Amino acid sequence: MELAYCFPLDLPNEGLKVPGTVQIRRAGRWNNGDQMTGCYLTSLPFEFMRAVADFDPEWCGSYFVPRATVRPPVVLLVQVWPQLDKWKEAHSSPLSDFGVEQNMAAGAFLELMEWLQEVLLQDAVFLRESYPDHPLFQGPVFSCPVSQNVKG
């Protein structure tokens, strides 16, 4: 980690982008006296956090998780939460027989569940190596032949 990421230095000739003083003040909780910071802003200074983690502070997409490049088989995805597709369809269709109220929170929750089923299967490949006897890995999702053939 370079010193310039820790302190608001002015280095015009080096082309180095450093988090602004506002981000550093938020990281140190030095500007909690005003109402806007206390009520409306998150206390997490994302640019500062990316900089100290050695990522580009201005580009949130610079964070990369290698396991995210491998998509689990659809056969396994639908086994994690078998009713998820039904509920997504019920939520998105105004003519649904289920009487599901359409709202943003429910839609976001269903999107989260869809994302988590993929993350669970991606992480399970590595977790199963460390904890092969965990009860989660004794369930039907991880007992099927397709799951047994997936290796890290």
In helices, the fraction of residues equals 40-55%
Give the termini separation: 30 Å
**Which percent range describes the beta-strand content?**
under 5%
Helix tally equals 8
Indicate the structural class: mainly alpha
Number of separate domains: 2
> Roughly what is the average pLDDT, rounded to an integer?
76
- Given the C-alpha coordinates, what overall shape results? flat
Q: Multimeric state of these chains?
A: single chain
Order of helices and strands: HHHHHHHH
Beta strand count: 0
- Main sheet characteristics: none
The residue ranges in which pLDDT falls below 50 over 5 or more consecutive positions are 1-13
Radius of gyration: 22 Å
Short description:
By secondary structure, the protein is mainly α.
Describe this structure in words.
The chain is an all-alpha fold. It has two domains: 10-64, no CATH class; 74-148, no CATH class. The protein is 47% helix and 0% strand. It has eight helices and no strands. It has helices spanning 21-27, 35-39, 46-52, 74-80, 84-92, 104-130, 140-143, 145-149. The radius of gyration is 22 Å and the shape is flat. Residues 1-13 have low confidence and may be disordered.
Fold topology:
Elements: H1 21-27, H2 35-39, H3 46-52, H4 74-80, H5 84-92, H6 104-130, H7 140-143, H8 145-149
Helix pairs in contact: 5-6
InterPro entries: Ndc10_dom2_sf (IPR038279), NDC10_II (IPR031872)
Domain Ndc10: 23-143
Protein name: Ndc10 domain-containing protein
